[in-house]
UniProtKB/TrEMBL annotation:
Keywords: Membrane, Transmembrane, Transmembrane helix. Residues 56-224 form the DUF4350 domain. It comes from Asanoa hainanensis. It comes from the Bacteria. The keyword Translocase does not apply. InterPro entries: DUF4350. This is DUF4350 domain-containing protein. The chain crosses the membrane at residues 21-40, 302-321. Signal peptide: none annotated.
Amino acid sequence: MTTGGRRAALRRGWRRGRRTLIPFGVVLVLFVATLVTHAVDTPDSGDADFLSPVSDAAIGSARLADVLRGQGVTVVRHTDPRTALTDSGGATLFVPAAEYLDPQSVGALRSLPASTRIVLVDPPARALRGAGVPLLRGDRRWATAPVSSGGCGIPGITEAGASAARRQSYVVEETFTGGYDACYDRSVLRFGYPQEVVVVGAADPFLNGRLDEHANRAFAAGLLATRPKLVWLDLHERFQPPEQPLPTYTPEESEPETYERPTTNPQEQYTQPPGGRDGPPGEARGGDDGDSASITDAFPPWVWAMLATLGAALLLLLLWAGRRLGPAVTEPLPVEVRSGETVLGRGRLYQRARARGPAAEVLRQAALRRIEPALGLDDEHGPADVVAAVAQRTGRDPAQVDGLLYGPAPEHDHELLDLARGLHTVADEVGGVVPAGPSRDTPPGSAGPDQGEPR
C-alpha cells in the first residue's frame, strides 16, 4: 500500500472512530476533573501536614497556632495520646484526627475532668461511642459549605458569624435526655457534662488555606481559646499502645472540679436531621460501627459523584451516537397493487371469515362520511336527523333510508352486496352525482355499473 493509501485509510478510520472516541474523551476529562476537585477539597487526615500546628502547608494549622499564641494561649503539641491525655487537665484538648485513636485512648476521654474542653473534628462513630458522646452521624455533604451560627450558645463562638463548618451533620441519640447546644446547621454540637465535649463536622475552619475565609478565624480561635492552655494531639496514623496500663489523670486536691452548664434547656429526645431521614436514628445505624446511616453513607461521596458523572457521560454518548431523524424519503415500491385488487382482497377476507356484520358496518360508516358533510348538519345531529335529511334530499322513503344506513346486519352474501349498491347510490344522490329518485336503484341481484365482471 502506498503512503497516500495508508493516509486515506487512517482518515477513514478516524472518521469512523471519532463518534466513539470523542464522547469517551469527554467522559475521561469529566472523571478526572471530578476526582481532582474532590481531592483538593478533601485533605487526607493521614498526611503529616493535616491540621498540624507546626505545618505551614495549606492543610496545616501553623497560622491558627500563631493566632492562639497571640491571644495568650499556651499551645502544647503532642504526638502520643497518652501524654496528651495526662497533660490536658484544665486545658483544651484538640483532637483533629480521632479516627487514629486506639480504643483505650478513646475510652480514657471519659475520665478527663470537667474543667477540660475536648474538641473533636469530624470523629467517626466508633470514637463518639467510645467517648460516651450521645451523637449519631447524620447527612454528609459532598463539599464543605459555609453556614451561619444561627444564634449559637457555645462559649467562645457565640459571635463568630458564618463559618465553613457544614459538612458532616449530627443527630442526638434518642435515649439522651440532657441538655446540649447545636449550632451551624447541627454541624457543631456541645455537651457540658460530665466533661465538655465539642464536636465539629468539618476541618476547613482550622486550615491555613481557609483561615481567612468567612469567619473561620474567629470560629477556630474561639473554640480553642476558652482555656489558657491548648493540648494539640498531632496524630496522623493509627496509634498502637504498648501493653501496659494507660495513665489516667488524677486531679490535685487544690484543683477545682467545675464545668460549664449548657446554655439551653434539654431538647427533645430525637431531632430529625436536615434533609430528612425516615425513622429514629437507632434504626438507621446498621452494622457494628454505626457509621452508615443509610445506603448513601455506605460508600464514599466520590463513588456517587463518579456514578453521576458516568451517567451524564453515557447520556452524552447516546445523544452523540444517536441517528438524527431527517425528512421522509419516498422509495419506489417493488410491486404496484391496484386499488381494485386491494378492495377485492379485503372483500374476500371478509367473505372467508363470514364477517358480514363488520363488513356492513364499514360500508355504512364510509357512506355516512360522504353523506353527512353534503347535508350540512350540525355537530349534535343524531341518526333520526340524518334519515330525515337524506329522505328530504333524495325523495326516498324514510324507512328505506333508515334500513340502508342503520338497519340490521345482512345474513347472506347477496344481502351484503345489495346493501353496498344501495349505500353507493344514496351517497351519489345526496352528493348530486346522479339524479335523485328510486329509478336509479339497481335491481337486487343484477350487475350494476360498479360491480364489474364476475371473476
